[in-house]
Write a structure and sequence with these properties.
With 343 residues, the chain is an alpha/beta fold. It folds into two domains: 142 residues, Rossmann fold (3-Layer(aba) Sandwich), CATH 3.40.50.10740; 153 residues, LD-carboxypeptidase A C-terminal domain-like (Glucose Oxidase, domain 1), CATH 3.50.30. 31% of the residues lie in helices and 21% in strands. Helix 9 links the parallel strand 8 and strand 9. It is globular.
């Protein structure tokens, strides 16, 4: 009888084991790799993996800022190529991106702008060397495609201002610029943000991931769509109708995006377009309605996105989100030295 039972148990193990192994293949890492922070003398490469970059002055301003920080700069071979909407052909843009991640002398990659086009080249990029020698990818908007892909590979990235949005001497941008420098050079950052009437109080801890809402929505069902299990979502967007914001959030919800989410940070939802027929809700109300069945903290008006004060977020880094009755505190968790605060 015992021999029969043993054979039965062995059969069950053999049947279940392949499924267990298969399930672990796509499991995202619990802690992401932190690329080396920059030091004076390091090289940053500026590329344009998406929309056309006509404004050379914007790039020159970005170069000057990096040089003021003691960094050296390389430019992508096809940075100023023009192919209708795009900064060169898909092949040219992919070539620059591949060169930037493979070149061992390049310690960070700064995307000149977003726009549209990242999704057209993401599948042609070979991340083999990048995984062996990770470096910081910096940008936002359409660069969300790369943020999600790289975070899924288990490597942190930086959601931050780009040359196209950088305005030297702009007072509104002073804190955004300061936060990027601190993040790149490994200085600790904790943000304290004024309260919003729409906030949902609470505290959570988890990796912060996300980016542009339209891009997150467009990535649903693709291999670049990131899991939100035990994570905190950051979203921002620009120039959308309220009904489309509603549609995107409902689609995320229907895909189980929020089922195991730990918290939500809402950045700039700027330049909202209006229909002739009023939608009947504010952008904040649209967000809250879409997630009303979930009990996690929500912070609005975080200074990041298509706004002047676009503070740096280290995507993939574990944060402590504390939404209080009078302010929100977002603390990035580090190993080692003492905390520095961005107010």
């Amino acid at each position: 009888m015992k021999a029969v039972i043993d054979k039965f148990l062995l059969f069950i193990v053999l049947m279940v084991a392949p499924n267990v192994a298969f399930a672990s293949v796509d499991q995202e890492p619990s802690k992401l790799v932190q690329p080396p922070y920059l030091q004076k003398g390091d090289t940053v490469m500026i590329i344009a993996p998406a929309g056309i970059m006509k404004d050379t002055v914007k790039v020159e301003n970005g170069i000057e800022m990096l040089q003021d920080w003691g960094l050296q700069v390389k430019l992508g071979k096809h940075l100023f190529e023009q192919n209708f909407h795009f900064a060169g052909s898909d092949k040219q843009r992919a070539e620059d991106f591949q060169y930037a991640i493979d070149d061992p002398t390049v310690k960070a990659i700064w995307c000149a702008r977003g726009g549209y086009g990242s999704v057209r080249i993401i599948d042609s990029i070979d991340f083999t060397k990048f995984k062996q020698h990770p470096k910081w990818l910096i940008g936002f908007s359409d660069i969300t495609v790369f943020h999600n892909e790289i975070n899924k590979l288990g490597i942190e990235t930086m959601h931050a201002l780009m040359p196209i949005t950088y305005k030297p001497g702009n007072k509104e941008q002073k804190k955004a610029k300061k936060s990027l420098k601190k993040a790149l050079f490994g200085k600790k950052i904790t943000y304290r943000i004024s309260d919003s009437d729409y906030n949902k109080e609470g505290q959570a801890e988890g990796q912060v991931v996300g980016g542009n809402l339209s891009l997150l929505y467009s990535l649903l069902g693709t291999k670049s769509s990131i899991s939100l299990d035990n994570k905190i979502l950051f979203i921002e967007d620009v120039g959308e109708y309220l009904y489309h914001i509603d549609r995107m959030l409902i689609s995320l919800r229907r895909n189980g995006y929020f089922d195991n989410c730990k918290g939500l940070i809402v950045g700039g939802i700027s330049d909202v377009r209006e229909n002739e027929t009023p939608f009947g809700k504010t952008a904040e109300e649209v967000v809250l309605d879409a997630i009303k069945e979930f009990d996690f903290p929500v912070s609005f008006d975080f200074p990041a996105g298509h706004i002047r004060d676009n503070r740096t977020l280290i995507l993939g880094r574990t944060i402590n989100l504390n939404v209080k009755d009078n302010k929100t505190v977002v603390k990035f968790l580090y190993d080692g030295s003492s905390e520095r605060v961005e107010k």
